[in-house]
UniProtKB/TrEMBL annotation:
<keyword id="KW-0486">Methionine biosynthesis</keyword>
<feature type="binding site">
    <location>
        <position position="132"/>
    </location>
    <ligand>
        <name>Fe(2+)</name>
    </ligand>
</feature>
<keyword id="KW-0408">Iron</keyword>
<feature type="binding site">
    <location>
        <position position="88"/>
    </location>
    <ligand>
        <name>Ni(2+)</name>
    </ligand>
</feature>
<dbReference type="GO" id="GO:0005737">
    <property type="term" value="C:cytoplasm"/>
</dbReference>
<dbReference type="GO" id="GO:0016151">
    <property type="term" value="F:nickel cation binding"/>
</dbReference>
<feature type="binding site">
    <location>
        <position position="86"/>
    </location>
    <ligand>
        <name>Fe(2+)</name>
    </ligand>
</feature>
<dbReference type="GO" id="GO:0005506">
    <property type="term" value="F:iron ion binding"/>
</dbReference>
<feature type="binding site">
    <location>
        <position position="92"/>
    </location>
    <ligand>
        <name>Ni(2+)</name>
    </ligand>
</feature>
<feature type="binding site">
    <location>
        <position position="86"/>
    </location>
    <ligand>
        <name>Ni(2+)</name>
    </ligand>
</feature>
<keyword id="KW-0539">Nucleus</keyword>
<keyword id="KW-0533">Nickel</keyword>
<dbReference type="InterPro" id="IPR014710">
    <property type="entry name" value="RmlC-like_jellyroll"/>
</dbReference>
<dbReference type="InterPro" id="IPR004313">
    <property type="entry name" value="ARD"/>
</dbReference>
<feature type="binding site">
    <location>
        <position position="92"/>
    </location>
    <ligand>
        <name>Fe(2+)</name>
    </ligand>
</feature>
<keyword id="KW-0479">Metal-binding</keyword>
<feature type="binding site">
    <location>
        <position position="132"/>
    </location>
    <ligand>
        <name>Ni(2+)</name>
    </ligand>
</feature>
Length: 180
């Protein structure tokens, strides 16, 4: 996984949007934001992913194929929904099996976007309460294993004055040493 600051220039969301020169983001910065990641080779990934799932209390999982073929008629709507800035009340855990894409996470308190370029073998944990979004890259396809602590669910709460005071958001900010 490659992490860097998003350039905020207008244009296709599927492009890299990397500054020139690039502004890489360190593992320490991601750790401070409670964004976790591992690189696990796809061949034989099950054992290591199972270990991490057990360590972090993930009990359920499913597979998602984000592509025109995988989502059919709802593809365009889903891509728009995924790219709206939102937060979840649960961690978002993805292990990339094929394809590639971008998770953008808000750095607090700067409010800058950090782009996480993910590809096969990347396992990323987006913490509950962090504002983020997702998009495919120009290849228009990603297949990912989704892990869940309880029943599979994906409930986005779009950024608003209500989400700014959501208990999961407030707890997240407190956990990284930022006042709500």
């Amino acid at each position: 996984m490659r992490a860097y600051y998003y350039d905020n220039l207008p244009g296709d969301q599927r492009l890299p949007h990397d500054y020139v020169p690039s502004r890489p983001v360190s593992k320490e910065t991601l750790d401070r934001l409670n964004v976790k990641y591992w690189t696990i080779p796809v061949e034989g990934y099950e054992t290591r992913v199972d270990e991490i799932a057990k360590e972090r209390g993930y009990k359920n999982r499913d597979m998602i194929n984000v592509s025109k073929e995988g989502l059919g008629e709802i593809y365009e709507d889903k891509i728009k929904t995924f790219f709206q800035e939102h937060m979840h009340e649960d961690e978002e855990i993805r292990y990339i099996l094929s394809g590639s894409g971008f998770f953008d996470v808000r750095e607090s308190p700067s409010d800058e976007w950090i782009r996480l370029a993910v590809e096969p073998g990347d396992l990323v944990v987006i913490p509950a309460g962090i504002y983020h979004r997702f998009t495919l890259d120009e290849k228009n396809q990603i297949k990912a294993l989704r892990l869940f602590q309880d029943e599979p669910k994906w409930v986005p709460h779009n950024r608003s004055s209500e989400t700014d005071v959501n208990p999961h958001r407030v707890e997240y900010l407190k956990s990284i040493g930022v006042s709500a």
